[in-house]
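hiii, so i know i said id send this last week but things got crazy w the move. better late than never?? heres the sequnce for the chain we talked about at the cafe, plus the structure i predicted for it. fair warning i was half asleep when i ran it
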Amino acid sequence: MRDRTAGVILTILVVFLIGIPGIACMCVGLTLYLIELGVPLNLTQGGSTAYNLTGFTGLCVGFFLLLITILISYLLLHRKPESTAVIPATPTTAVMPAPPTPPVSTDKPAPPPDEPLPPTT
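okay and structure toks below
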């Protein structure tokens, strides 16, 4: 995917098919969970009400769907480093190495080995 057009289109598709249902599931779950807190009826079966269990399940499923949406969108839009493929040299494109350079000569003669080097400033 050299251009990002396909990634953007797939991200929009993922948001519509997974993200929006995830948000709706979270809203319904939160609504049912909050209804359970204010319902004066005793609908308890085994220590939990039907609203409480359904609301909590809706919240969990919605959160999971949103997590999947974010992960897929990141993977689709993440810029991948360009490949640095090495092209093997062929005889027609081979470059000859440069010959070694001779040592650089200076105009000053080297000090005799018995005398110390002069101080540098």
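btw Residues 5-38 form the longest helix (34 residues). thought thatd interest u
miss u guys!!
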